[in-house]
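Annotated sample (chain length 529).
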Amino acid sequence: MSGQSLAAPNAGVDEMTGSRRTRVVILDFGSQYTHLIARRVRECGVYSEVLRFDAAPSEIAEGTGAIILSGSPFSIYGEDAPKPDPGIYELGIPMLGICYGMQAMTETLGGKVSPGTTREYGPMGFEPGDKHRLFEGLSGTAKVWMSHGDEVMEPPAGFEVLGRSADGKIASIGSDERRFFGLQFHPEVVHTEHGKLVLENYVHEICGIPSNWSPASFVEETVAAIRKQVGDSKVVCALSGGVDSSVMSVLIHRAIGDNLFPIFVDNGVLRKSEDHEVIERLKTRLGLSIDIVDARGRFLDRLAGVEDPEKKRKIIGTEFIRVFEEEAKKLGDIKFLAQGTLYPDVIESISVKGPSATIKSHHNVGGLPEHMDLELIEPLKTLFKDEVRKVGAELGIDPDILGRHPFPGPGLAVRILGEVTAERVAILQEADAIAIDEMRNAGLYNDIWQAFAVLLPIKTVGVMGDERTYENVVVVRAVDSLDGMTAHWFPMPHEVLERMSARIINEVRGVNRVCYDISSKPPSTIEWE
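Output written by the structure step:
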């Protein structure tokens, strides 16, 4: 392909319509860091969206001011190597290839990529060449994060080498004429010095996209979109009392007022006193009119004898929908069901955005039945958890509601390993309440991203009152995280663990052993199922 300019004459403006191009599209080639690219771009005040690596140029073009090609676990020479549609290079939109993305761009545009004589993994030195606006603000050698075996040997025609690694290998290429650039390192990870600055230079200086995406703009645009989609129709809302569903409910209520009908379903696998807390927090303080449905027996009957976690999720997801459909019929003329689905739910549930492996089904994504009588509204499905909290603050929701730890849609059913019974639910509810209570007493609750107790499907020998016991094991889990995509176990003070263990064993009949989970994500997930 030729190196002649295909770029629009005015950065950030659609040449045909004159409208602003303010979206950054990230094409996912399966990198474990793809979601981080999206996060970092949003931190620049610019909306970003992840699409499949093979998204059609027509799907990419509208409103897009920049394209980023992600990394990948594949080799560019592998039989199954994912390749983008060549048409994306003809859109006249600036492009940045990261790691594998740079190699894919190079190979497609006529450059040379070869298996490296030596691989580069982990921290490396990066030396920018002559001053270039992509690296404005960087001085001297920067420490960057590398993760590649193949390497670019010759850039395509019209490109120049913009920087090299400490080993002298090509680490950045670019064509100012086409506004196509490549980085062999990962600017999105925290291990790369000034990585966010490089992305800011690309998005703002090279692509001309302003910082105009914020919680306030999200609220304004989403409220308008909901009103347009719903019109005068009624909406039932799946309200759990967690951060996501609370923010979603208030957001939709702002859009359509009393045409929103929040429904709280007690499915028998909620935390202790969850129904009372939801009423106090949302009905009393936020003024929402909430329909409370007692479906405990119904859900537990469906879960009887089921041990496989995916089956649990599917059963709960399907049953939730059936309950909402039944309640909607009572209200009459209901067309829409609203859910608090988030971006990590979508990413982890189904490989709709790229070749990444499915981790698990979330009940409000992969757990939905194939046939539904209601049309879905998911206004938060492009947001990460911390972004949802910022939107909630913009809506005026109380900090203690926004500060609640995440709680899975299937509830305690996926924290009870093995069969779910009313007895086992009661044991875990009490143990979980004690664990959280001790974290609050120690002033640690707000320092932790998520914490909970898990009931294992095994029993162990113990001694109580000089008598042998054979009872259940409870595991306490607490993690630090920003968006739930990665997490590190929380260093709980020993004295807090001691109080938790003593109280759980003494106060919860049926438990004689408490353990603490010190696994990070990856390789583990946050939830046990």
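Annotation: The CA atoms of residues 128 and 163 lie 4 Å apart.
Annotation: The two ends are 49 Å apart (CA to CA).
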